[in-house]
Design a protein that fits this description.
Elements (H helix, E strand, L loop, with lengths): L4 E4 L5 H13 L4 E4 L6 H18 L2 E5 L2 H6 L4 E4 L6 H6 L6 E6 L2 H9 L4 E4 L16 H12 L5 E4 L7 H5 L5 E4 L1 H4 L4 H11 L3 H4 L6
Parallel strand pairs: 1-2, 1-8, 2-3, 3-4, 4-5, 5-6, 6-7, 7-8
Helix pairs in contact: 1-2
Length: 215
């Protein structure tokens, strides 16, 4: 089954992405998404090869954002496709059967379309405003997740994404999402990964919700 915590790489340069990926793996990340924007294909491919070496060393799963052909070439664990990227149906034909496909959604209609295209997981967001993504869709908040998931009734894992911090986890998890994707909050402190995992795996009940306030 797919990991419940996804770290989406950040960095001012490809090398910085790799350094952060190494730090995330060393801190216990189970799934990394390499997200390189505005770089040429050669740079993305070379960075993906290095990211694959790092993640293999730590036995961490690697997802490549956008570039399914590169995901196939470096034998990454899968690809994540944005709404303006290649269709999951087309990408599936270029990937091995064991490689997973995730897709971005911001509405109920987006989710249903991705389910029809047989994705392995859905990245649903944004939870709140985030500067890491351009042309941001309207924020969902807790109520948005709850409404969509109640209507969707799917077994496909739904991953919340978009400006999420540690303080949000318990409130988000009780909406019914499967997991969380995080970028900035983890990049600022990789030691937070263990706490994220603890809250995500144990934060699905009202009783758990109040634990941080009992300290």
């Amino acid at each position: 089954m797919i990991a419940k915590l996804h770290y989406i790489s950040q960095g001012a340069t490809p090398q910085e992405h790799l350094t952060n990926i190494h730090s995330a793996c060393a801190a216990g990340a189970e799934l990394i998404q390499l997200r390189l924007k505005k770089y040429d294909l050669k740079t993305v491919l070379e960075t993906a090869k290095k990211a694959r070496e790092i993640t293999e060393h730590f036995q961490t799963r690697l997802i490549i954002n956008d570039y399914y052909k590169i995901a196939a070439e470096v034998k990454a664990d899968g690809v994540h496709l944005g709404k303006s990227d290649t269709s999951p149906t087309i990408a599936r034909k270029g990937l091995a059967s064991w490689q997973i496909i995730g897709g971005t959604a911001s509405t109920l209609a987006d989710c249903k379309k991705l389910i029809d295209q047989k994705v392995d997981y859905i990245g649903l967001g944004p939870f709140r405003f985030t500067e890491t993504k351009e042309n941001l869709s309207p924020v969902l908040g807790e109520e948005g997740y709850k409404t969509i998931l109640e209507s969707l009734k799917t077994d496909i894992p739904v991953i919340a994404i978009g400006g999420i911090t540690l303080n949000d986890i318990l409130d988000i998890m009780i909406t019914g999402v499967y997991g969380i994707a995080v970028s900035g909050e983890i990049t600022s402190d990789f030691n937070k990964i263990s706490k994220f995992k603890e809250l995500i795996n144990g934060g699905t009940t009202e009783e758990q919700r109040w634990k941080p306030e009992e300290k």
